[in-house]
Task: structure prediction
Amino acid sequence: MKIIIVGCGKVGYSIAQELDREGHDIVVVDNKASAIHQITDNLDVMGVIGNGTSYTVLKEAGIEEASLLIAVTESDELNLLCCLFAKKAGNCETIARVRNLQYNEEINFIREKMGLSMTINPELETAVDMSRLIRIPTAIKVDTFANGRVELLKFQIPEESILDNMLLINLNKMVKGQLLVCAVERDDQVFIPSGK
Result:
């Protein structure tokens, strides 16, 4: 897959490194020649020095053949504009890093009107993940679905726990709210419980 990454800071470099490992055709774009040289000297990627909102620069990067553009510069506005231009110039999928909380409050509107495939806010995602883990400190992992109405939790039950060897039907009686145990992992084997 041909992927263009606009912004060669830490985030852009990390994304390029991972996608390069996966064997994708990567082109990086940045205003700073030093950032382009650092990434192209260390990874098997092409580099274009220039502004990611320039049609000429995007065309040089291969926007017309690209499947995806990821904009991760320090500027939310530049990221959004890059994605808008990419959508119009190449009709590819687009991902923008948007860190401003005010924009995040209106992100569904922005995504719909600009035709963005996805927006990411690493700091907000980290804060949300941390708050979930603080709220349920014994959980190893917490994933939320259905606009927060459903949570998928992963726990490790120690041998000395009262939950160890408890029938799942009895566990339901102990918990306030609705509970469904989807899977149990024991000794590297996963099985779907019957509730007994």
